[in-house]
Each structure stands twice: as structure tokens, then as C-alpha cells.
Amino acid sequence: MKSADGVAAPRRAAPALRELHELFVGGQVGSTYLDSTPVRRLVADSWRRSLATGVDPDRGGGQTSSAPVTVERLRSAHPLAPALPVIRRLLIDDAAESGVVVAVTGADGTLLWVDGDREACRKAELMDFVPGADWSERGAGTNAPGTALALDRELQIRGSEHFCRLVQPWNCTAVPLHDPTTGALIGAIDITGGASVASPQTLGLMRATGVAVENHLALLRASARGPVVSGEARLTVLGAARPTCRLERGAPAVLTGRHADILVLLDRHPEGLSADHLAVLLDDRDLDVVTIRAEMSRLRRVVGERLISSRPYRLTEPIASDMGDVFDALRRGDVAQALRCYAGALLPQSVSPGVARVRAELSSTLRAAVIASNNIVLLADWLKLPEARDDRHGWQMLHDRSPIGSPERAQAKGHLAGLDFDLT
After folding, report:
1. How confident is residue 365, by pLDDT bands cut at 50, 70 and 90?
2. Per-domain residue ranges for the chain?
């Protein structure tokens, strides 16, 4: 079973887990079989990815670089280098005789720094858990730092949940780290050791360390650049392009998917959202209040402290957006303008339940307005959008209302034939 904080299954399930791992990597059971077993969904999905990318379960962990100079160069240039004193103070200084190893990786999964209990570090070397080794999920299979980077979320991997057999005596907890300005993933911190490493207390410690590291980097950056002048923000969240937020006198900042989700939800809830409510709207299963607070702290560094207030979380002033432009035009009854402003579906890559609801509302409202307009030109423009590809009613209307012999009628007839073919 999985607890709310993502801790692995209880230890009594370990023998069954080892057996399932052997059956899976040995090809005796298929991928879908894992869905009906005690293997956590997070782990089962990671095993599938590891197998699909050709990770060898009999290999050690990562493949070690043969160029120490490269590691030193990566360390000196890495954005996490200034935060090492914070990591040492919170995790490493007390790990000298604790039996644990603390590691810092880059965003690509390369181990940059490995420190901690001397004997534990020596044992970890036997599985290539050393600076310069590739511990991404693609390189080393299911493991805490690699899978945390792959999913961009904190997690714990215990014993037989590791994909490679040589790593299975270990337990580990890892948290991803983000750039304080852009929110981009820049690396991860991992702690590896015995059974106690996969505890809720360790997960809480690692979360707190991640927040401390990001806040430290933000303070260093703020002191270097001086005060930031904020202004009216504009959000771009429609279509396939990366979401951005532009301040009045600044260049657009590219948003992470989670930050774009939050801004859209706050825009649609001017009354404000509690941390619990926001967590449910973002992900109805796995988010907790601590994670929400950390994300809001990162988001404020991107858009400014003044734009978002707390308790509840809400926008302190209206925020302009391409989504809002479409809604405003529809409220005015200007369907043509609404269609011109509509660059495509709202955050099409987002899996947030709250965003999915707004996405469906915006698309359905625009479609209904186009259909009700009885304007063939607007209808043809709507049908050019990817989401209208399977809109059989719309294509039938375009066919029936276009002049006989017109290109529009011919195109609609061909498209309808293709839709009917898919149903046969």
C-alpha cells in the first residue's frame, strides 16, 4: 500500500516485491500484470520505462565518466555549487557516522557530489555511486534521484523497488531542485542508506532541505541583481507553445507546467484557494500542503511577491491572459475575435483536474458560439484546430452549408469519409 507521503510498501511485502521484480525483468510477466500487484504505480511505471530503455538489471548503477576533469568542470559551473554549504549544514555534517550517503546530481542525473559516512560511501562505490556516474533513470533504472528527476517530484525508493539488483540492498529518498527564477529543473538531492532512510521523517527533512537550498539561491541572486520592479503581468497559456508570463517592463519568463497550472487556477478563482483546495485542483492524489507551499514560493520568485497573496492564495490584481481574451470576447458576443485570440487548447500537456475543467469549458463554449453563429467562415476556421479534427457535427455542417463544387464542401466530404472509415 502507498501512504500519502509516498513512502514505499511496508517491509513485510518485500519478499513478494522481489519475486515480482524477478518475474518482470525476466520477461515472465508483462507490463500490464504489474497493475494488479502490490507494486506501487510510481515504481511499476518506472520499471516499464527502465525496461523499455534497455537498462540492464544485472549491471551496477550508473556508468562512470572516465574524465575526472569533466566532473570538476561540471561542479564549478553548476548552479547548485553556491548552495553546497546549506546542504552540508543540513545533511552532511551529521552523517559522518550515520551509515548514509548524501548525493547531489545535475538535471541530467550525473552525480556531482557524494559525501557522508565513510564506510557507506565505500560500499556505494561498488555500485558506481560516485561523482561522474550517470544515475538518471535512463542510465541506472528505477532509483530515487533518477526517478525524482524523471517525474520532477520528491519520492522514496526502498530495496527491491530498485530496477538494478545490485542497488536493492539500499533505500533512498530524493527531492528535485529548481532554478529560483525560471522554475526549471536543475538537479536533485538524494540520501541513501538503510531502512530508516525511507521513512516519513527523512522525506520531511529532504523537503525542508530542498526549500532551504532554493531559497538560498534566490537570496544570492536577488542580492546580485538588486530590487526587481514588478508590473502588470500577462499570461500566455493557449496552444502548444511553452506557457509564459511577461511582466510589464520585462521579457517573458517561461513557466513550468505546474506554475502555469497554478496561475490559471488562481485567475479562475478570484476569491482565493486554500493550500488543500489548490492541491486537489492540481492533482487529486499525490500533492500535499508542503509541496504546494514550496511551489508557491518558487512561483513568487518568477512573477514577483506582490502578485500573489496567502491565506488563501489569490491574485492581488487581475492578470491579463490569452485565455481571458477569449472568455471576454465570448461574453461580448464577438465570436470572430474570440476565435482569433484562440491559439489552441488551454495548457494541452497539463493533467491537472482543475485545468482540464477550464480547458473543456473554454473549448466547448467557443465551439458552441461558432456553431450558433451560422457563419461558414468561422466554422471553417474552427475546424482547422487540432481539437476539431473529430468534430463530426461541425464537418457535416460545413459540408451541408458550403456551395456545391466549392473547395470547402469537397474538403468536408473527404474529412467525413475519413471519420466514417475510422468507425468501421
Report:
1. very high
2. 18-224, 228-373
